[in-house]
Design goal:
Radius of gyration: 22 Å
Mean pLDDT: 91
CATH class of the largest domain: Alpha Beta
CATH superfamily of the largest domain: Bordetella uptake gene, domain 1
Number of helices: 11
Strand content: 15-25%
CATH topology of the largest domain: D-Maltodextrin-Binding Protein, domain 2
Order of helices and strands: HEHEHEHEHEHEHEHEEHHEH
Helix content: 40-55%
Number of domains: 2
Number of strands: 10
Distance between the termini: 59 Å
Largest sheet: 10 strands, mixed
Low-confidence stretches: none
């Protein structure tokens, strides 16, 4: 190859390599789609819209929330896994996408480890074991004694098979060597309604939806599944405090993009996400829902999600829970 052709080839190669970087530096140049794999109006949707508005202020582009519920979040996750990795399609990802479904389903249309770019954490939703106020067990010691004296006769509600609430109780049962009977519902609202009504005596309830009913006394919280007590329920002990160690149960959320997202775009999204998590409107909304913010790097979010997958995979296997 002569010098003229060599220089032309080198210039073309440099332009090809530089083009994605230049595009990343100019990003965002159009609206961003934020996929939420749940229906509109729920805690995940409300949080996504709150954070999206705060990020819009710093990104300078509109962020449109696109609700794509179904198949235990797999529909929304597949949309993002197969999207063009240009930064214009991201999603809310929670326990289901990142920690549960690869163990609950024999085959997934995507890999949580290989088909996404991890952007950063958003929040953690503490979960509490609650009972109807009329239930005779007034604390965890009495609850465990009652359940052990009546194996299989105490029912518990959940929003459905494989939900964080269901698996939280499976972990509780595993750690305490107890047997309660699962009553799955089609969503958190009807499950919570039947516990408040006394039709089912207990359930694990996330504070995103359950904080008001706990504070109002419509259900009684026996323990919270976090390492430390939460500020919104300072009188509720942790599971560890009441003799149930190694049982941290919570729902977590973060942002994913498709695999191959340019590093500059990932870094920009992460920076603006972390700024949003300190925005007063976002802080207040999280406090109202009893949530804990999860700022940090993409690497920290990925490490947490993979550790959660390993932890919950062991519980799912031990309980024999499958969704197909």
């Amino acid at each position: 190859m002569d010098r003229r052709h060599f220089l032309a080839s080198l210039a073309a190669t440099s332009a090809t390599v530089a083009a994605p970087w230049a595009q990343a530096q100019n990003w965002p140049e159009q609206l961003i789609r934020w996929v939420v794999p749940y229906p509109a109006g729920g805690g995940t949707d409300v949080l996504a819209r709150t954070v999206a508005e705060a990020m819009r202020q710093t990104l300078g582009q509109q962020i449109v929330v696109d609700n794509r519920p179904g198949a235990s979040t797999n529909i929304g996750a597949q949309i993002v896994a197969t999207a063009k990795p240009d930064g214009y399609t991201i999603m809310s990802a929670d326990n289901a996408v990142l920690a549960y479904n690869e163990h609950l389903f024999s085959k997934l249309p995507f890999s949580p480890e290989k088909d996404f770019t991890y952007v950063g954490g958003i929040s953690r939703f503490p979960m509490a074991l609650v009972v109807h106020p009329s239930f005779e067990a007034k604390n965890m010691k009495e609850f465990l004694a009652y359940v052990r004296a009546n194996p299989g006769k105490v029912n518990y509600a959940s929003p459905g098979n494989g939900s964080p609430h269901h698996l939280a109780m499976e972990m509780f049962k595993n750690r305490t060597k107890t047997f309660l009977t699962h009553i799955p519902y089609r969503g958190a609202a009807p499950a919570m309604a039947d516990v408040m009504g006394g039709q089912v005596p207990c359930m694990f309830l996330d504070l995103a939806s359950g904080l008001p009913v706990i504070q109002s006394g419509k259900v009684r919280a026996l323990a919270i599944g976090t390492a430390k007590r939460v500020a919104t329920l300072p009188d509720v002990p942790t599971l560890a405090e009441v003799g149930v160690p190694d049982t941290e149960v919570y729902a977590f959320q973060g942002i994913l993009g498709p695999a191959g997202l340019p590093a500059a775009v990932t870094q920009r999204l992460n920076a603006d996400l972390n700024k949003a998590l300190s925005n007063p409107a976002v802080v207040k909304r999280m406090q109202d829902f009893g949530m804990e913010a999860l700022p940090g790097t993409p690497e920290q979010f990925r490490a947490m999600a993979r550790a959660e997958s390993k932890r919950w995979g062991a519980i799912i296997k031990a309980a024999g829970v499958k969704l197909d």
